[in-house]
Amino acid sequence: MVVARTASDRMELLSEYRTEVWYAASIGTLLATLLSFFLVRGGLRPLRLMAAQTHAISANRLDTRLDIRSAPKELHDIVESFNAMLDRLHRSFEQLTQFSADLAHDLRTPLNNLMVQTQVALGKQRSVEEYQGLLSSNIEEYERLARMMESMLFLARAENAHVAVKPQMLNVEDELAKIADYFEGIAEEAKVRIVVGGTGEIFADPMLLRRAVGNLISNAIRYTPEERIIRVEATDVGNAT
């Protein structure tokens, strides 16, 4: 007896298997895609929080820092470096703001003096001697303005590491006298007096020296009570450097 079976049954069975495998693979791929999406989204959540914190930082909010607690451990070094950069920027902005305020205050006095003296001189006809006195007074104010420009140039040089320092031998007494003369108007407004004295010479960059001593005198004027004396002295101590 011979039993025969057609191949159509097997082909139909294979077709059903193929369809089931295709459905299973499609569903598995979809589930894997959704699972990957949520896993990646959850993993990137700390980065989105950091991005939101970064967008909130502006020139008026430089005191804002990234929260290192919300960042993954792998990003702690990056967050610390970013916060350190913000600290440097914050200090730079504060220095720039303070410098702008100080510069505006310093410029106000000589400019006001120039305008008032010129307006008074033009109020009526005056003699040649009076005009000469006015011009001499104006020259003093112009010299003060020139020294302020030197101070601004100093800041530009100090911020530029490529500019070489050029030290030279300087007379201490002369340098202190120039610095005191520069702050004379500000000291008068603050009702304090600056007395300087010194002997010997110093090997230094003129602008750097003037700025360093000028910062000390500026702070002294700011915090010294009225009707007091600010005394600046320099003494030669031999082989000191």
UniProtKB/TrEMBL annotation:
Q: Which InterPro entries match?
A: CztS_silS_copS, HAMP_dom, HATPase_C_sf, His_kinase_dom, HisK_dim/P_dom, HisK_dim/P_sf, TCS_sensor_his_kinase
A Pfam family that this protein carries is HAMP
What is its EC class?
Answer: transferase
**Location relative to the cell:** Cell inner membrane
Q: What is a single molecular function from GO for this protein?
A: phosphorelay sensor kinase activity
Q: Which NCBIfam families does the protein's record reference?
A: cztS_silS_copS
Keyword Mitochondrion applies: no
Has the keyword Cell membrane been applied to this entry? yes
Q: Give an example GO cellular component term for this record.
A: plasma membrane
Q: Where are the transmembrane segments?
A: 21-40
Q: Which residues form the Histidine kinase domain?
A: 102-241
Q: Which organism is it from?
A: marine sediment metagenome
Q: Which residues form the HAMP domain?
A: 41-94
Give the E.C. number(s). 2.7.13.3
Known PROSITE patterns for this protein?
Answer: HAMP, HIS_KIN
Could you list this entry's UniProt keywords, alphabetically sorted.
Answer: ATP-binding, Cell inner membrane, Cell membrane, Kinase, Membrane, Nucleotide-binding, Phosphoprotein, Transferase, Transmembrane, Transmembrane helix, Two-component regulatory system
Its recorded reaction(s) are:
ATP + protein L-histidine = ADP + protein N-phospho-L-histidine
Recorded protein name is histidine kinase
SUPFAM superfamilies in the record: ATPase domain of HSP90 chaperone/DNA topoisomerase II/histidine kinase, HAMP domain-like, Homodimeric domain of signal transducing histidine kinase
Q: What is its main location?
A: membrane
